[in-house]
Amino acid sequence: MNAETEFETRCGFVALIGAPNAGKSTLINQLVGAKVSIVSRKVQTTRSLVRGIAIEGKAQIIFVDTPGIFAPKRRLDRAMVSSAWGGAGDADAVALLVDARKGVDEEVEAILARLGQVGAAKILVLNKIDTVEPPRLLELAAKLNAELPFAETFMISALRGHGVLKLKQQLAALMPPGPWLYPEDQISDAPLRSLAAEITREKIFERLHDELPYQSTVETELWKDMPDGSARVEQTIYVMREGHKKIVIGEGGRTIKAIGTAARKEIMAAAEQTVHLFLFVKVRENWPDDPERYREMGLEFPKN
Question: What pTM value is reported for the model?
């Protein structure tokens, strides 16, 4: 009996790769139908592999939202890019997401050069099509397929959801026969405490996009279920300078209070319980060189 007849169900992994801000996190949230990856206009917000789980017919698709692929300069950058290519190498299919407005730039060219070495089925996804005229879209699709032949090309708007269902259906058909790896109602493999930290980090970026440098991180230090069914959640925001700490706290604590209020609302929705959120800010100048911080983010610590 072969796998086709043995299993009615299908299950596999799809890696979403692309340059920073191509829209991978927005797309994975659309595909899953719930928030599993943080979205920010600040580039490189996704740092580790985020897995979102979707059901399409009899197929279970595990989407891996990878960090944006870019030219790494720092240790953290190298860890993120290594994580992205690791996710692509382990997948059953790889979807390259390209911002149709930007078209083919140096970052996309670099990805194409390396993507040819990946053995999985390759799908091209042009995103933000609502911002580009159709003739230019067709020209862009032809140019990309000339550089690297893709099994299929899709044109979508991840933000508006246009074309996303058709993409999901095709990806489901590419999944190999086999049993589902997760329960039907599970939408992510990230522990709640990790998702909670990511939600708070998103709220920091949203509020302090222009003021706070990229190098801040959040860790959930405590998640304690209380007798009344609520949860006490304590998180630490790590920044690299005393001046950054003042920015996060804000005058009279107003900024951190607003961040906490916005984060608590989304953490409660994800946890489906009342959450009491307590935020602390600490200066840790060398956190991008601390292996423990990388483990917390699910990244391999680059040795040099």
Answer: 0.63
